[in-house]
Amino acid sequence: MKKLVYFLSLIFISSFGFAQGKVTFQANITNKNGDVIYIKDNMNKIVKEIKINPLGFFKDSFEVKDGFYQMYDGVEFASLYLKDGFDLQLTMDAKMFDESIVFKGKGEVENNLLAQNTIGLETFEAANFDKNKEDFAIAFESKKKSDIEKLEKGNFDEAFKTKVRRNLTQDFYGLQMAYKENQIKKEITGKVSNGFEYENHAGGKTKLEDLRGKYVYIDVWATWCGPCRAEIPFLKKVEAKYEGKKIEFVSISVDEDKDHAKWVKFVTEKQLGGIQLFADKNWLSDFIKSYGINSIPRFILLDPEGKVVSADADRPSDAKLVAQLDKLLN
């Protein structure tokens, strides 16, 4: 699933109601990625674990507050809307995931809309993010009109409609920000990167220019960021694999100044490797802004001359990163 969809989904599920009741949820999943489905709330907290049998089937009933959730199978995720009395039956091919999701039963119209919106975001990104500003604006306004009409004309639960209507504005804003970020990535690729001079956890300060002569893999993260922390074990393995090679691994925290002590403690307790730096003005640091970064984790790869190889590099958990580094370093 694309990073854009993940970012917008985090915005989308931020609105919750207060009513609480029971839902029934069952599924037939082919090519399952694991043996458990996790239902997570807007704080990324697991509210229910559901075991999947060897044939890819599960059925369970559980209590939830009315609102938006995420279904996570250990590899991919999908947005859900759950409400008292919903009785959902899901069919899905986990290898295709988003493209294959179909809901039946009470609550199907709301949850099928969420699945269709996810595909719509991916399709829109692929078709429009390489367009010039004028053509993108035309496509954007067309999508905005279409999404609003689909919501208003649909036979949806009124509470769902109210919440989605309120969140559509944020979704559209997120699309515009993601487009601008993509434009910046294209503009700076192949050019010498902006520099930085940040506090080093090991002492003193470190400049980007100090690392010239080696490839530099940069992880922009924060201690509060769950997806960032999930990448740490994979990053440690990549660092170990290329120890002594012509590459430096740099982690830049965009934690706020008030959380500086938390960052110091986290790096120490988790025994984080590489070069651990603290950005001078978190998200407003000149280096961070030069890459248009508005969501994390974000990974950047520079060559020994300081030129941008990738302004949005593969994550440590993605096997494509090792393949790329092997090609560059071996």
Structure in a nutshell:
With 330 residues, the protein is an alpha+beta fold.
**Portion in strands:** 25-35%
What count of domains describes the coordinates?
A: 2
Sum up the overall morphology in one term: globular
List low-pLDDT spans: 9-15
Fold topology:
Blueprint: H1 3-12, E1 16-30, E2 36-40, E3 46-51, E4 57-72, E5 77-82, E6 87-93, E7 102-106, H2 108-128, H3 133-153, H4 158-188, E8 197-200, E9 205-207, E10 215-221, H5 226-241, E11 247-253, H6 260-269, E12 275-278, H7 286-290, E13 298-302, E14 308-310, H8 319-329
Parallel strand pairs: 1-6, 10-11, 11-12
Antiparallel strand pairs: 1-4, 2-3, 2-4, 4-5, 6-7, 8-9, 8-12, 10-13, 13-14
Description:
This protein is of the alpha+beta class and 330 residues long. It is built from 8 helices and 14 strands. It has helices at 3-12, 108-128, 133-153, 158-188, 226-241, 260-269, 286-290, 319-329, and strands at 16-30, 36-40, 46-51, 57-72, 77-82, 87-93, 102-106, 197-200, 205-207, 215-221, 247-253, 275-278, 298-302, 308-310. The strands form 2 sheets. Strands 1, 2, 3, 4, 5, 6 and 7 form a 7-stranded mixed beta sheet that branches. The protein has a 7-stranded mixed beta sheet with strand order 9-8-12-11-10-13-14, with helices on one face. The longest helix is centred in the middle third of the chain and has 31 residues, at 158-188. Mean pLDDT is 92; it is low at 9-15.
